[in-house]
Amino acid sequence: MSRTLTYCQALSEGLVQAMERDESIFVTGIGVDYSSAVFGSTTEAVRKFGKERIFDAPAMENALTGIAIGAAAMGKRPLIVHLRNDFMFLAFDQMINLAAKWKYMYGPNAVPMPLVVRGIVGRGWGQGATHSQSLHGVLGHFPGLTVLAPATPADAKGMTIAALQADRPIVIIENRRLYDIKGPVDIEPNPTPLGRAFVRREGSDITIVGCSIMVQEALVAAQDLQQKGIAAEVVDIATVRPLDVDTITASIRKTGRLVVVDTDWEFCGLAAEIAALAAERCLKQLKAPVCRLGFADCPAPVSAPLEEAFYPKASSITKASLALCGESEEGMTFSAHVDTFKGPY
Amino acid sequence: MSNLLDPTEEKRLLRSMLRIRRAEEIIAHHYKTEQQMRTPTHFGIGQEAVAVGVCGALQQDDVIFSHHRCHTHYLAKGGDLAGLVAELYGRATGCSGGRGGSVHLADRKVGVVATSAILGETVPVAVGSALAFKMDGGKRVAVTFFGDAVFEEGVIYESLNYAAVNGLPVLFCCENNLYSTETPLSLRRKSGSEFIDRVRSFGVPGEVIDGNDVGVVREAVANAVARLRRGEGPAYIECLTYRWREHVGPLFDYEANRTYRTRDELEDWMRRDPLAVSKKRLMNASALGDAEYEAWLADIDAEVASAIEAAKAAPWPEVRLILEGVL
Ligand SMILES: Cc1ncc(C[n+]2csc(CCOP(=O)(O)OP(=O)(O)O)c2C)c(N)n1
């Protein structure tokens, strides 16, 4: 049974239900027990479970990650939350050199490593160069990490639940601008299957692949493309690693055209990975060159018009798709994904 | 020189030191002459009293975390000698299945949870295990071993602060052997800026002790661990000691013509051999005779020889399984 929740409410519900079922789960990170409660996503957990199980931490991202690893090694299920995923750069030693390699390098003597890390991408309202990057592609590079980038409220909940049940290190990248998006969410604590991509909209003319916020932009673009009779298929990557190659390539083979849109830079990123996949596995079916869309190739600027130009959006996806399908922009109206985001941060 | 521990206990510790010493020496010999162990090894020869003294004061279900110079800690905590040797030879029977090598030893059965070649990396992990112990309300403790160079990494300060603020049962054990690879402490620390003062500034109590006397280490750690088990928060022990061999590899530095420290300095420290200190004490008390010591030596050498033989005869990991065990 489902009903409508926001992405943020879904995150909260997933966490609460996971914690109810498993006493070994605890939550830490800067501000997790503040009254602002990570934009409200931990309010309910704080109310229900108190400071024994959900507690603040000093600003010490690297050691905190190691501490969570050490607790996980002793049978706990720690969840670390970073208000901005950029802070996770300070934890890369622990995340990448230790957690990601743990099971492999300790072989048969490795204890399970159920570490979960949530990192939120700031977007809009001039978050600037150090608060709006998305680390899903960077983290996805490393074998041993599972990297999730939920695009819908249902997955925000389902992936939280799945991550808190798994016995391996998992990073969940959430986009702040998704927090107010509404959608159907199961009442039951159903985990989203990890490692699966999802076709969010079916179509036969062109495939648009993305994750996180870009899925929402792509759905708006797909709607607009109907004006020219173009049926776009939207594939939500959902799990960056391990990547569901089959679902993605099946769609590319079906439509023969691919736009990859990422909430990251194109260079050495997830979009490049998907493009390579198309080249390696779907070349015969491709009717047009692959098109990549990502951040402008510069650090994120703050000033509103610059910031507006920095991000790919529904209209840029629509325009790229029209070009690939050999259609003009004439007579088109371009919708914008409604941005309800307000300051101060 | 400190007093004799209970002679049975001191004999146990000396035998354990001897076992580690001989294992390391024999492994070093094979490493050098065969070129078959393809994993950088950091020998702890000369530093055995720290590992044995600390682990001697722990219970089996207490956990330890170590770093690149981890053979001593692994063996002292009860790690499997055959598993260690096989790991160095890269065999499937190695304690880490041939995936970790010399610097990623683990043995969950005896509480060697993780070792890592990144400086300071396992320090917070020990703190986290202590956090779990505190949450569970038990009496277990966690120990993190690290070298003096870790005081140059930020993560140690984050970890000390967190452990202190939260009163966690973790022992920070610094093995200060005066060098970080070939850089002496004098070039890395302003004179007068003692580690112990930094540690105390976080509210963590500690002491600096003779790390070449297993009795001193054993006693200091027993006291510290008793405090940890009473829930009085973390502690720090700095063991002054010296490594005899090169930083990484089986040679003496003079064999490689390195000049960062003198042979005189080494020989000075070799006169303070932790094994000799303990042996002399036992012999003076007539608790140990030459014959018994020689018998230990023979047993240990045979054990190490058969571990090496077994490792060489053991199967390699199957290449077709290279992708197994990532997730
Ligand atoms: C983060 C990091 N930086 C540099 C190194 C290279 N390195 C390996 S061992 C070592 C010196 C370690 O000295 P110390 O901590 O005193 O331990 P010791 O080797 O003396 O036992 C260095 C610099 C490393 N392993 N990790």
UniProtKB/TrEMBL annotation, chain A:
SUPFAM superfamilies assigned to the protein according to its UniProt record, in alphabetical order: Thiamin diphosphate-binding fold (THDP-binding), TK C-terminal domain-like
Keywords: Oxidoreductase, Thiamine pyrophosphate
Residue ranges annotated for the Transketolase-like pyrimidine-binding domain, each copy included: 5-181
UniProt cross-references to SMART domains, sorted A to Z: Transket_pyr
Pfam families, alphabetized: Transket_pyr (PF02779), Transketolase_C (PF02780)
Oxidoreductase recorded as keyword: yes
Cofactor(s) the record lists: thiamine diphosphate
Single GO MF descriptor: oxidoreductase activity
InterPro entries recorded: THDP-binding, Transketo_C/PFOR_II, Transketolase-like_Pyr-bd, Transketolase_C
Protein name as annotated: Alpha-ketoacid dehydrogenase subunit beta
Originating organism: Undibacter mobilis
TrEMBL record, chain B:
Domain Dehydrogenase E1 component residue range list: 16-319
SUPFAM superfamilies: Thiamin diphosphate-binding fold (THDP-binding)
Matching CDD domains: TPP_E1_PDC_ADC_BCADC (cd02000)
Catalytic activity from the UniProt record: N(6)-[(R)-lipoyl]-L-lysyl-[protein] + pyruvate + H(+) = N(6)-[(R)-S(8)-acetyldihydrolipoyl]-L-lysyl-[protein] + CO2
One GO term (biological process): pyruvate decarboxylation to acetyl-CoA
GO molecular function, a single term: pyruvate dehydrogenase (acetyl-transferring) activity
Keyword Transcription: no
InterPro entries, alphabetized: DH_E1 (IPR001017), PDH_E1_Alpha_Subunit (IPR050642), THDP-binding (IPR029061)
Cofactors: thiamine diphosphate
UniProtKB keywords: Oxidoreductase, Thiamine pyrophosphate
Gene3D superfamilies: 3.40.50.970
Primary role: The pyruvate dehydrogenase complex catalyzes the overall conversion of pyruvate to acetyl-CoA and CO(2). It contains multiple copies of three enzymatic components: pyruvate dehydrogenase (E1), dihydrolipoamide acetyltransferase (E2) and lipoamide dehydrogenase (E3).
Designated name of the protein: Thiamine pyrophosphate-dependent dehydrogenase E1 component subunit alpha
Organism: Undibacter mobilis
